[in-house]
Amino acid sequence: MGSVQFSSYLEGFESDWTPWTNNNTREINRLYPGSYTLWVKAKNFWGEESESHSLQFYIKPKFFETNYFIIAFLGLGFLGLLLSYRWRRYSYAKVRYKLESLINQRTEELVKEKEKTDNLLARVLPKDTASELKEKGRVNTQRFQVVTVLFCDIEGFTRITDETNPEILIDQLDKFFLYFDSVVEKYRIEKIKTIGD
């Protein structure tokens, strides 16, 4: 008893017709997205072939294979890179601002400490000696033929402060120091201050 046999040809995918088979179905794997034309013909028991008939079909691309997806993916990738770049710039700017603030703060502290040191040197050492110490970091020794050490003190200062009105005391001390400084300058006395009563 005869049976019908089939042969097919997938245009653009195969180069020739398939061998004749009794199977009236065809499974084709690994087709890329696109339009295809499947040609089919049949042959009966006596070997008579039918005309070939075509079936056109279209395979849709998977979502991730579409141009829209690729463009969106590239766009998101670019956006991600841009955001990452901006975030890094922001982070660096933030760190730089903190460092600059810290440097400014430390610089201010150093300037204040230098002013304190300069004031202390000016109060304790003669002007020329203090300047030399600041410039060179050391002071050259000086030799004098004759030197006299003069210790000055206000005798009974504690008692005077207890008995005198503070405003009057300040005025009197101010006058006293002005006069004392003029005498020191007149006779070129090196004045070294100490803390005492």
Secondary structure: elements and pairs:
Blueprint: E1 5-11, E2 34-43, E3 53-59, H1 67-124, H2 127-136, H3 157-163, H4 166-186
Antiparallel strand pairs: 1-2, 2-3
Characterize the structure shown:
- The protein is built from four helices and three strands.
- The protein is of the alpha+beta class and 197 residues long.
- It folds into three domains: 5-60, Sandwich (Immunoglobulin-like), CATH 2.60.40.10; 62-141; 143-197, no CATH class.
- It starts with a strand and ends in an 11-residue tail after the last helix.
- The model has no long low-confidence stretch (mean pLDDT 86).
- Read across the widest sheet, the strand sequence of neighbours is 1-2-3
Structural category is alpha+beta
Based on Cα principal axes, name the global outline. rod-shaped
Tally of extended strands?
Answer: 3
Main sheet?
Answer: 3 strands, antiparallel
Helix % is 40-55%
So how many helices? 4
Distance between the termini: 140 Å
Tally of structural domains: 3
Name the beta content range. Answer: 5-15%
Rg over CA atoms, rounded to whole Å, is 53 Å
Q: What order do the helices and strands follow?
A: EEEHHHH
